[in-house]
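Narrative of activities, Objective 1.

The group set out to show that a structural description can be obtained from nothing but a protein's sequence at a throughput compatible with the screening campaign. Below is one input-output pair from the validation batch, recorded exactly as produced.
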Amino acid sequence: MFDAESQVYVLQEGQESYSIFKGNFEELTNFMATEYQTHKYEKIVLAGPYAEVVEQRIRTFSKTNYNFDDINIEVI
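Output recorded for this entry:
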C-alpha cells in the first residue's frame, strides 16, 4: 500500500553523523549489504521495531549476491 522511507547514517566517534542513503525497506537493506562490501565500515548498527527483520534481509542479500555472510551487525 505504501513504502516508508528510512535513512542510513554514518557514525564515527568524535565526528558528527551524516546521512548517506534514503530509501524504502528493500532499497535500504540492499544498499547496506552492498555498502558493507566496500570494507569502509566496521559494523552495521540497527535499532527500532524492525531491526531484526532488517538484519536478516541484509544477511540474505549479502549471501545471495556476494556469497558473503560474515557481516558484523549489532541490533540495539
